[in-house]
Write a structure and sequence with these properties.
about 220 residues; alpha/beta; Potassium Channel Kv1.1, Chain A; 2 domains; 4-stranded mixed sheet; 3-stranded mixed sheet; 9 helices; 7 strands; about 45% helix
Amino acid sequence: AVSPVVELNVGGELYTTTVSTLRKVPGSKLAEMFSSSTKACLDAEGRFFIDRPGTYFGPVLDYLRSEQLPTQHIPEVYREAQFYEIKPLVKLLEDTPQIFGEQVARKQFLLRVPAYSENLELMVRLARAEAVAARSSTVLVCVVRTDEEAAQCAEALRIFEFEKKSVVKFGPWKAAPQVKDLLDCVKMDIAAQGYQVYYEHYSERTLRAKYFNYFYTFLFIWW
């Protein structure tokens, strides 16, 4: 029997395909959606409606039709493949350099940096608190890679605490990447939230020279 043709409305974008294509990966959300027992959600024109951004559904559909892998917008397609639980496509995309680099290399490193995401949130909170009627905010960051460096910095951190200066401390961690790699990750992840941010060595003269390598200023630009 010929598989019935279906029209889909995915977040306002229209697609035409067949039921067998949508059921191609057993256990996926699309296969479940188009199994006979599931009650479908229809739009005003009678098309199957999926309340999800439609832009990157096309590459997912191309994979189901012909196992064609996307060559563009890979992180976005990866997110949709995860949402629709199309496991073979998720696995193939995880082998692409973009996703492999982000998931396996960078994310695995950051998982070894204690309290990384909490520290990012704290930096943003401190920057926003300082932003009232200002063009920019600065946040002081201390980065130590080893326990020895952490011990060396303890005195400087006490001085900052005495001066009531907030310092966000990253590290130590047990992984190959260096201090600059961590600083680049912090900058990248804060910029990904929409902030305009830069970092530089902390240059106040009050800090003794031996501590200079551990302290950085992150500058948030507001306008």
